[in-house]
What does this fold into?
Amino acid sequence: MSDQPVDYHPMWAELGLDLPTHDALLGAVGQLFGDAYLTQENRPQGMDYLNFVMSEVHGLRIKELDDYRKSGGKVFGTFCLYVPEEIIRAAAGWCVGLCAGAEFAYDQVEQIMPRNTCSLIKSFMGFKLAKVCPYIESADLVIGETTCDGKKKAYELLGDMHNVYVMELPQMKRDVDMAMWRDEIRDLMAKVEEVTGNTITAESLKASIKEVNDKRRALQRIAATRAADPAPISGKDALLATQVAFYDDVPRFTQMMNALADELEARVAAGEGVAPKGAKRILITGTPMALPNWKLHDIIEKAGAVVVGEEMCTGSRYYQDLVSEDASTLDEMVSDIAEKYLDINCACFTPNQGRLEDVVRMAKELGADGVIDYSLQFCGLYEMEANAVEKTVRDAGFPVLKITTDYSMEDVGQLATRIEAFLEML
Amino acid sequence: MRVLGLDIGSRSVDAVWLEDGRIVDWAVADSGFDPGSAAAVFVERNAHDAIVSTGYGRHGARERFGGTAVTEITAYGVGAARLFPHAFSVLDIGGQDTKVISLGPGGKVTDFEMNDKCAAGTGKFLEVMARALGFSLEEMAEQGIAASTGVSISSMCTVFAESEVTGLVHRGEDRARIARGLHESIAKRTLSSLKRVNARGPLVFAGGVAKNPAMVALISEGFEGDVLVPEEAQTVGALGAALSLGAAAHQ
Ligand code: SF4
Ligand code: SF4
It folds into this structure.
């Protein structure tokens, strides 16, 4: 690394970004990050790496993708946890998460989709329409999936502007669904092989399974330390680690997160924490929080509590299960991958009892004082399921607060009152 | 020890002074454009040893005057339980929000709900509707009580309801029946919110809208259990804030 700040504008221009708008976005994200993250006290040293990644979020990482593509490598963009990174990496593809967590260019978005679409969808569409996301512009192929209705239709719209491939995801978890899902994964393999020009072998797939498992293991280690009181890491920082997991270089990220986990384990052993011992402990469950969506964590932690877990796709759902490493044939590996991925408990499945069990188990394991259910407004799936979550969690003896919100900052004051009152009640 | 409880709301700034737990003075002022200055007048008015602020301006007040802050939810719970020791729930309809609170022993909050972002079903809603009907707030309540049946109003959104009301007026609908319908629609929404938090009686009805006789009548009619309206309905939050200091000290 040289001390000279690098000017990435030529690279962004080459990717087709709208430079003035993009500059404005980067400025806003930088400020948001400063307010939410750099004001925290007593952060683990290992967070320096993630601070650095954030400061280079559209810089160095994009440069790496760019270099990789110029040397013949391919980049794949994904939106959902169900798209198996192992398959992509086995063909030497690189995977980047494309979900977006900020309100952007909604005026343009609302010309092509209804206003009452969830923030997640509106946001990635806004980033695409306003040409401010270097990740999507770096993606040789975007892989969508038939999860919710909104995304299904959004991929059709995105297909007019970008190279999109859509995986069919079952909505139940019976044997027939598993069989179909295995076929879908095989089809994805063929597609990825076609785009990369590389063949997926038992060897390469075994290696990528191990590599992605290692990434999840590192995140599991971090998650486990959060059961300690005092918690050694803020919820905001832990959330950032999961958010970055979706697009950072896999071996490097794994190494840095293991180093962070070492530090956190030492902190726990020394009884050191970010919030004082006895601070109220909150588990969050619900819709994913894509970068730079730190709204809820920020409100909760600024009110003096600490978030100890996230039962969401930017949380435990991402790292709690591993793919078996025992298989030796390609077929077995595909089955193992299919099984691991179909085990994810998303509200687009019916029934989704597994999620309810996960929430209660996590609340107990992490010693939560209360649970906050977070739904994005207009996400019918999670908003509907919120009632079942509320009931189950309450029956298990934990107070619950249900929140429905979006990416806008209008309701921050109101949310703060509700959250503070909830904390006062615990 | 003398504690000043300040409730800085969107419509009014309320203050209560407690001397060893007894109310020694109270005051209410309009928030106006600068609720902080209205509060500053109260801070100057009497000597005090501690300040506890509540209401949406609580954090600003804490920064400006020192002391601590609690949310309106906690403050209303504690305040209502002091005024009515047997109360098991609180309803507060203020200028811009509605809260329903379920209480355990000693005014401890066991569950609560607040309306979302908009002004639906709040004091603001009633003000806008009174204007659309050409009534003052008092007249609208009187007319609402006088009418035997109400026109059903389908929109809860302030903006939509306003045009609905204007439409009804133009069609020659009886304004008193519209007035009743408006109060009924808020009452209905409020009652279902009370159900969701399992509110049991006696219910303390506080906040600015508790001064509206039509709302009090309709809530009393629909709620299973006694409905109690404190004499100074507006100062429950400030009282609770001041009392919460003692409660915290006892913990
Ligand atoms: S919430 Fe469901 S649809 Fe959304 S990313 Fe997670 S698994 Fe995919
Ligand atoms: S938050 Fe809900 S509506 Fe939005 S993309 Fe995810 S599943 Fe679909």
